[in-house]
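[step 3/7] fold_predict: job queued, chain A
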Amino acid sequence: MKKLLTFLSIFIISFTVYLSYNDLIPSNSKKIDVTRFSIDNALEHLKVISKKPHYTGSEYHTNVRDYILNELNKMGLESEIQDQVVTRFCCVGTNTSNIIGTIKGSGNGKSLVLLTHYDSRHHASYGASDAGSGVVTILEGVRAFLSKNTIPVNDIHLVFTDAEEIGLLGAQAFVKNHRLVDNIGLVLNFEARGSGGPSYMLVETNGKNGNLISEFVNAKPGYPAANSLMYSVYKMLPNDTDLTVFREQANINGFNFAFIGDHFDYHTSLDSYERLDRNTLMHQADYFMSMLNHFSKIDLSKLDSDKDFVYFNFPFLKMVYYPYSWIYPLLIFSIILYLFVVYLGIGINKLSIQGILNGLLALFVSLFVCLSVTVILWNLISYLNPDYIDILHGFTYNGYYYIAAFIFLNLFCLLSIYYPFFKNNSGLDLSVAPLGFWLIVNILISFYLKGAAYFIIPVYFVLFSILLIYFLDIKSYKKMIIWTALSMPVIYIFAPQLKMFPVGLGLDNLFITSLFLILVFVLLLPIFSNIEFKSQIKNFTLLTTLTFFVLAFLNNDYDSNNKKPNSILYYSDLDTKQSYWLSRNENLDEFTSQFFNENESIKEASFFSSSSKYGTPHKQSASAEFIEFKSSKIQILSDTIIGNKRSLKFRVKPERKINKINFTTDDPFVLNSMSVQGIEFEIDKSDFKIDPGQFLTYYFSSSDKDLTIELNFEENLSPSFNLIETSFDLFESEKFNFNPRKDYMMPMPFVNTDAIVLSKKIEL
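[step 4/7] structure written:
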């Protein structure tokens, strides 16, 4: 019987883990109600949109814009292009072309915005997932919605923004300049940070989320994947979306629906039609249709709330949520109940003080060993695989194998640590100290990370399980199966988070997976202490660990499906007539070695830096042949002095096709104001200090022929700038002769590469 119950317990745990992942996303094998939404139609749109890279200013960008506009017209929607020069932050600008379509509602309340962006990341990404998936979800979803001949109550605006990838500029243009903004009640934004996996819901609000969460539940999404911890973490990261602009600058509530699986495709040439996970697209479709059907007919002016909710997805119930006001009562009562359970257990000889102390020792050893092994081993793996440092987002192609390997490695460590303790202590004794540790974690959460306050739920399940065990007069191995059944909710809630963090944040964060696994494992000690075949199970986890590490090793090479990122650009200082090859690769390969001598030490190019999402400097530099390129001409349009203020207006006229212009300065100075193309940068005070380095970036759109800049500053200043112009046409230029990339290589994402960069000083 004990052997049978052991198998049953292991099966229940394994099935619960499987269920926790399976419930997050639809698949072809599961029914999904996306009434009249055709995945095939959506994919036909995607095939066109992701045919070529379509970053702002590229030739195919215009084709994609016209295609979307034509599809809106075919559906009979009121549509328009919002052409608007826009500036944001300090300081970036461009000429955006937002696409806007409108479905008139029968009421006169607040309107609903369906939001995504249609530009891809410059310059090599095909943008199938980010955010072609959002574009086709909206196009096909609206077609399906209109096919029912239902007139919505609320006006619905389809907003396809431009220039999201270069600073959320299209959203800025819409929020700051479009007449529709004043009447928007809610925004649904569809995004991607990978090419697969479940789509997570993230709330965006300046206020409380109570009504947003309750209405999200009322919309009845088939596969809600959300918890309040994810949004708490999201708010800490430097990863904004277009929806952030709506929240920050117009105080408009919204939902993000974004997937992060297969993160290795993000912003790369592998973000293609073929690699977008069809189940993920179905998940976006499920969200879209349920949200559209619901929010198109309710009063969107009542979404503000005076309550914040803790929330998480749960089987059958779909979502569980409760107000923040419950956090402290739940915490306080759990502490009281914990103390009572411990006191009672000692009093009725169900717990021993020595066993509790041994449990505390085992917990500390587990935390130290597992976290240390995880961090040290991953650092060793990274050291032995120096190419990993050139994967800037930190998630390798064999990353899923590494996650599985480290999960089973930690399981092996935990079983090895606790095995000697099981011989002289009951699982109940050993679980008491870890339960106290959970309470300490929850106390910290209640002050610093309220979104994770659902961590109190496992505490209650364990406390009630202990009370039940106290009063059940059955053999310990039978209690094991009861504990297993009562632990299913805990496993279901936390199992997906073992994978989510290293996928979304990079494999450097495998220690988070280790920590979560320890936290869950120590709550299951009464199970593991009573199972048969302890040694065999421990050996199985070791064998599984080795298997996944071997699979990671066997899948460590690059090929046409898993491409090696590398970067190269040609930089030329026109004043000194010196040119250089520059790369952000730490390690040379067959392609980059033709530009650099691999026997030389790495030399950072401190004389020039360009944008990099992760702040990566140029790691390689080498002298190159100076080649004459026509550089932009500077024309002074006006130069006037009023009082002690100087107003300088000048035009930059490109002499070749360029994609962006940067201005840098070597000396700090103070500007009273600055404008590009007649649009002034917004500043919070009467002037702002310009520090040495880059202070202005302008991306050329297809409609820009030149760039007009106006500066206002003190009369006695004579600023000196560096004008840096960049074109993404290194591989198309006939002035160079080098071997192209191999089939297993691709341009490095998140940085400027495959570019010709010219720099010269200008005195004004």
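[step 5/7] annotate
Residues 558 and 564 are 6 Å apart (CA to CA).
The two ends are 89 Å apart (CA to CA).
exit 0
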